[in-house]
Amino acid sequence: MRIMGIDYGDARTGVAISDLLCSIVGTTYVVPSRNREKAMADLVRLAREHQVTEIVVGLPRNMDGSEGPRAELCRAFAEELRQATGLPVAMWDERRTTVEAHNILSAHNYHGQKRKNTVDAVAASLILEGYLAFRKKT
């Protein structure tokens, strides 16, 4: 059993996949997402290749907990992904994950293009780590 965490973006989508025990993040990817059909096909392929049994998509809430237009886009994306994969898709509050990802990358001296190509995968890892920790508690 593996869980896939996704940080959906207009240009790039970060992907993190758990280990078999669903205890840690095992693998990360960045999928170009300007072409939504190709991005969806890539995500379906990754889910199948890694034998994913569940997907969690980051839900961008405002700091007050409300949802705006970006959250609606992510919910629609999650539904499309559920239909394409046939897998259960959960939503996970992703407030501040991108800020945390940038802080992590700064601390490890990732700058410029190197950061741009990595930040979405790090954000997806943070989403997945949060979800895995929640699952352990319940």
How would you describe what is shown here?
With 138 residues, this protein is of the alpha/beta class. The chain has a single domain (2-137), classed as YqgF/RNase H-like domain (Nucleotidyltransferase, domain 5), CATH 3.30.420.140. Helices cover 48% and strands 25% of the residues. The protein contains 5 helices and 5 strands. It has a 5-stranded mixed beta sheet, with helices on both faces. The protein is globular. The mean pLDDT is 89.
Provide a concise account of the structure shown.
The chain is an alpha/beta fold and 138 residues long.
- SS elements, strand count: 5
Succession of helices and strands: EEEHEHEHHH
Strand arrangement in the largest pleated sheet: 3-2-1-4-5
The CATH topology name reads: Nucleotidyltransferase, domain 5
How does the overall form come out from the CA principal axes? Answer: globular
Structural class call reads: alpha/beta
Main beta sheet, described? 5 strands, mixed
Described by its quaternary structure, the protein is single chain
Cα gyration radius (Å): 14 Å
